[in-house]
Specification:
20% strand; 350 residues; Rossmann fold; globular
Length: 350
């Protein structure tokens, strides 16, 4: 597999933006705080649509299944809550998406035995988890943490979507990067998400991504992660049979990929409404969904996990979710376990 990033931007605006990011990194370098437990960050350089949340869920589940007490620290993007909020102590969501954010509530529902704590200040969130949660976390997973420079971390995993790995190669307004590509020099590993490469393969897609990023200062390994689709389930727990007519409702960064996945599973799309990423679905939006569904002839509204938590019991139409799971190649888990074991033992990075 061959991946070739675009040439570095040369416009005055892009150079100015690059310089501002460099100043920000240097400012935080001397001020970042450290929690007394290992911190593993899963993040991205893109504005949305990288497959980061399924990767966070997969990593947290893996660490939980190793017998570690895991707490996910999230910003709670687009939520209206204030301060530190425990979204889950490991027994499911305690707060709704309005106070906690859609992705933390989704993770809390999908990950029994894993705590989820939300705050813009992830250091305070971690200390709160250590004081209040039982069992006390042995490791923290920092959700969407790559650009959160105020907290030191032991591992930085950076996700790149296979469909759009370079996000135009530029910062806004000419591209969709949060930080310049040279920021990959801070990453411990990179993962090509939504890869079509089998996880039983030699991992050439992940290696190709890592090689493409070498000129930008990246020195770590690269891995591929496939996306596995589950059976669409109604809120009642029943599954939707293939061939059924469904009406799609999404508020995500890449709705076209979701629609393609639904078609791949053999469902007929009777209609679709696309809202902006992290849309809160106020009453006018709910009314619009119900009206469109009634005229579609569909059997159910089909949506994503993070949209389901915002729509559940708020629309009249039958609601179904398409489960999406990240499935990294085996070499990724071997690398992660080795590096995390060293961090738990207090050893320097290998």
């Amino acid at each position: 597999m061959h991946l070739q990033p675009p040439p570095p931007p040369s416009s005055p605006w892009q150079l100015l933006y690059n310089g501002a990011h460099g100043l920000r990194r240097r400012w935080y370098h001397a001020r970042a705080r450290r929690l007394p437990r290992p911190v593993l960050s899963i993040g991205n350089l893109h504005w949305g649509g990288t497959g980061k949340t399924p990767l966070v869920a997969a990593v947290a589940a893996h660490l939980r299944d190793r017998g570690l007490a895991v707490a996910i620290l999230s910003r709670g993007y687009a939520s209206r809550g204030r301060g530190v909020r425990v979204v889950s102590a490991g027994q499911g969501p305690l707060l709704g998406p309005l106070l906690a954010g859609d992705e933390p509530v989704l993770l809390a529902g999908e990950l029994p035995g894993v705590a989820v704590v939300v705050s813009p200040d992830r250091y305070r969130a971690g200390l709160h988890a250590l004081r209040r949660l039982e069992p006390r976390p042995a490791v923290f997973v920092l959700d969407d943490g790559f650009s959160h420079l105020a907290l030191q971390r032991d591992l930085d995993v950076l996700a790149f979507p296979a469909a759009d790995p370079w996000a135009g190669g530029r910062l806004p307004p000419g591209g969709r990067l949060r930080e310049p590509l040279r920021a990959v020099g801070r990453a411990s590993a990179v993962v090509l998400t939504d890869s079509e490469e089998s996880i039983e393969s030699t991992g050439s897609a992940g290696a190709a991504l890592a090689d493409a990023l070498r000129p930008y200062g990246f020195a770590g390994p690269g891995f591929a992660s496939a996306t596995r689709l589950g059976r669409p389930l109604l809120a009642t727990g029943e599954s939707l049979p293939p061939g059924e007519k469904v009406f799609l409702v999404t508020a995500i960064a890449r709705p076209e990929r979701f629609a393609a996945s639904v078609r791949e599973l053999g469902f007929e799309i009777a209609g679709e409404l696309r809202f902006p990423d992290h849309h809160r679905f106020p009453p006018p939006s709910l009314e619009r969904i119900d009206a469109a569904f009634r005229g579609s002839g569909a059997a159910a509204v089909l949506t994503t996990g993070k949209d389901r938590v915002k729509l559940l019991r708020r629309i009249e139409a039958p609601l179904a979710e398409l489960p999406i799971r990240a499935d990294p190649e085996p070499a990724f888990w071997s690398w992660l376990d080795r590096r995390l074991d060293a961090a738990l033992a207090g050893l320097p990075p290998a």
